[in-house]
Amino acid sequence: xxxxxxxxxxxxxxxxxxxxxxxxxxxxxxxxxxxxxxxxxxxxxxxxxxxxxxxxxxxxxxxxxxxxxxxxxxxxxxxxxxxxxxxxxxxxxxxxxxxxxxxxxxxxxxxxxxxxxxxxxxxxxxxxxxxxxxxxxxxxxxxxxxxxxxxxxxxxxxxxxxxxxxxxxxxxxxxxxxxxxxxxxxxxxxxxxxxxxxxxxx
Length: 202
What we know:
Shape: globular
Largest sheet: 6 strands, parallel
Strand order of the largest sheet: 3-2-1-4-5-6
Helix content: 25-40%
Order of helices and strands: EHEHEHEHHEHEHH
Strand content: 15-25%
Distance between the termini: 40 Å
CATH class: Alpha Beta
Structural class: alpha/beta
Number of helices: 8
Radius of gyration: 17 Å
CATH superfamily: HUPs
Number of domains: 1
């Protein structure tokens, strides 16, 4: 089996996330993409994040109907900070014969040396990097090559078209009472409205 974990705050999840998941599913011939909403992400402790159960509900709505997409509450049920190395160790322990991939943006690749226990992360998965705006490809390729040499592990750059959408942009539009339904998977806007999210704030 080949499975990928797609972690993120998903606050809110948008069609850019779904696009990435499908590209990974098809390009890597995956059996499953597991969406993993962060519980307490260490890099966002200073930023307000929507309650875990609401973000979980938005992701559940977004992936409804896709048999090869699933959602895990592993990190949001954890009492500790959401460290990637711990998540990957646990999932590898549960399914030792699964080939694991972990989806991250190119921004994460460029700051990977700041992550906790990188060697454990790379021992427990193949890192798959998707594009984001604002990064020169020469710099990305150099970082990929340096990390592969340093840790003796393969890192995959996911060849895909870029949908330049951000959760921050969506929250700003909602706070300005602008339409966002074209940026969100079906059902997500209903959850946003149900909990009155992102009004009068960015």
